[in-house]
Amino acid sequence: MSNARVAEAWKHYPLHTKLQGKPFTLRPMTVDDGEALRAFALELPPHDLLFMRRDITKPEGIGRWLDAVRRGAMYTILCEDAHGIAGYSSLHLTELDWSQHVADLRVASAHRARGLGLGRLLTREAFNMALALGIEKVEARMTPDQQGARALFQELGFQPEALLKDEVKDRDGEYHDLLIMACNVEVFMAQRRAFGVTG
Ligand SMILES: CC(C)(COP(=O)(O)OP(=O)(O)OC[C@H]1O[C@@H](n2cnc3c(N)ncnc32)[C@H](O)[C@@H]1OP(=O)(O)O)[C@@H](O)C(=O)NCCC(=O)NCCS
What we know:
There is one protein chain. Helices cover 35% and strands 33% of the residues. It is α+β, with helices and mostly antiparallel strands. It has one domain: 3-Layer(aba) Sandwich (Aminopeptidase). α2 packs across α4 (59-71). It binds coenzyme A (COA).
């Protein structure tokens, strides 16, 4: 991936915005954000934590994330409010040669910031990043009962592409199916232009 294109995309930050009157700042995550990210994770509702692919309530989970950021395998946009990290969106690049045009999107918002449009904003920011990185297709993975995530991605134009049986084993040892939804980056951007969404 071109560092120049990433640097160009990062010039857009810090981005100060208000959602339903509440101020937020978006910026790229750095390797110094580990502790703040862990504080964010510790405040997530238990149901969300149950399905986290990495246990980021633990220093080892945070360490693996920071390592991916350091290697350029993951690009994370953080959103902060007066209490700390209020949400993030992350693009995880694949190591497979035949899927260099695909990235895995992860989005989460803090309980205190839900229903304000933050998940939508963070997803849109991740698509700006995807465009800068030359990514053509963005995938999102969730268990079918993650209703907020399903509704958010559906609203933004993602389509269900696969359902993997018993792919997730939660921390209580229960199996869950995994739903993969996906969206073409060009189509996403074209829809945004058509609806007059800026940013
Ligand atoms: C999914 C998630 C990021 C949504 O965050 P959010 O900041 O509340 O989302 P937004 O306020 O931007 O919601 C945008 C739209 O998504 C839909 N939506 C979001 N949460 C919803 C819910 N619980 N039920 C139904 N629809 C929901 C609505 O259409 C909403 O638009 P509206 O409020 O104008 O009606 C949040 O619930 C979360 O962090 N979940 C846990 C992590 C997760 O499942 N991540 C996705 C897999 S990577």
